[in-house]
Amino acid sequence: MSIREVEQAAAAVLPRPVWDFVSGGSGAELTLAANRTALDRVRLVPRALRDVSACSTASTLLGREVSMPVATAPIGYHQLVHPEGELAAARAAKDAGVPFTVGTLSSFPLEQVAEVGATTWFQLYWLRDRALSYELVRRAEDAGCSALVLTVDVPWMGRRLRDVRNGFSLPPEVRAANFTVDPASEAHRAVPGASALASHTSTAFAPSLSWADVQELRSRTKLPLIVKGILDPEDAVRAAECGADAVVVSNHGGRQLDGAIPAVDALEAVCAAIDGRVEVLVDSGFRSGVDVLKALALGASGVLVGRPLLWGLAAGGEAGAREVLGLLAEELRDALGLAGCANVSEASRLRTGRGPLPLDRATKHDEGIPR
To answer: Does a structural domain hold residue 109?
Structure first.
């Protein structure tokens, strides 16, 4: 009936270390909790006496038609939660009519994921091996991916204490399938009191990524370029100046800088600074169709949804992932109509406000989830 219930179902079946890896954040998880708090405080002002008898969630993202203004967010290693991993999730996205973002650290090769037939975006982590980064871009182009998502907020992985306490590492059957020589092999070496995945990313990812690299990447590919991990309006403007086609306002779901501003609180300023020059997407904490409507009202073109898709995959495989996307579509249509919007474009004209935190949200973000 809700994404919350899917989350509970996933928590009941996933091993504790995997659950913590998927659902945890960095540091004291202040930003992780703040993402949800900020969304809960956004209030919509519905319009009355509007004809919503033909209410539609259809929209476009990067010039392509989508069933709703939603895409899946890039998340690595889907096989941690289900054997069919990214393949099952991509099939669910195809059926739902939304783009699927396959990551650099996908547990199936990007070509195999693209063959599913969904509108596929490829997410790129900037690697120390620059030639390998460009090789991944070429492969994404050859595989028919329709956009490139450059993640810019991970010079190294944030200090995720749940993973550290669990001594989290990848099981042998899960690997970074986009590489002939698996650069994530270090991520399989369990060390008590350390995150093997953090060790891996510190050696594989390039903390030197700069605007010059974004410009160089723009010159090397004709794919639409999405810059993901933007919170400051000045960075959004710089991304547009470097040739980006879209930015994603994101704090990496609370998994990088703990204490960073909630993405939804950064959204309006970014949209104002961009002033329509490129599309503005947003992620980090979105869990319902009402959340999507809030993002649209605040100026976003669409929302990337991450953890809920993995929860659905964990709880019910491909059918579970499809159920999550179906719930979002149903909830969004309901929210649009009740707000007096016959379509997605009308949502951008809704007024918003900020209210107090509901009492049932004034507790730790994952209270009540079974362990």
So the answer is: yes
Going along the chain, which residue ranges are E strands?
A: 42-45, 59-61, 64-66, 70-72, 100-102, 120-125, 147-151, 225-230, 246-249, 279-282, 302-305, 351-354
Exposure string over 47-56, b if 16+ CB within 10 A, otherwise e? eeeeebeebe
Active centre residues (catalytic): 252
In a domain, 265, yes or no: yes
Measured distance CA(107)–CA(185) in Å, rounded: 13
User: Looking at the domain assignment, is residue 355 inside a domain?
Assistant: no
Burial (0-12, 13-18, 19+ Cβ within 10 Å), 233: middle
**Three-state DSSP state, 210:** coil
CB-based contact 73:100 (threshold 8 Å): no
- pTM, entire model: 0.94
Burial class of residue 212, CB neighbours in 10 A (0-12, 13-18, 19+): exposed
Residue 75's CB is within 10 A of a number of other CB atoms, namely 23
Give, for all 371 residues of the chain, the pLDDT tens digit.
999 999 999 999 999 999 999 999 999 999 999 999 999 999 999 999 999 999 999 999 999 999 999 999 999 999 999 999 999 999 999 999 999 999 999 999 999 999 999 999 999 999 999 999 999 999 999 999 999 999 999 999 999 999 999 999 999 999 999 987 655 577 888 888 888 888 888 888 999 999 999 999 999 999 999 999 999 999 999 999 999 999 999 999 999 999 999 999 999 999 999 999 999 999 999 999 999 999 999 999 999 999 999 999 999 999 999 999 999 999 999 999 999 999 999 999 999 999 886 555 444 444 444 43
Give the CATH number of the domain where residue 300 resides: 3.20.20.70
Range of the domain at 246: 3-344
Task: Spell out where 63-153 has E strands.
Answer: 64-66, 70-72, 100-102, 120-125, 147-151
In angstroms, the CA 71 to CA 99 distance is 5
What are the φ and ψ backbone dihedral angles of 195, each rounded to 5 degrees?
Answer: -95, 115
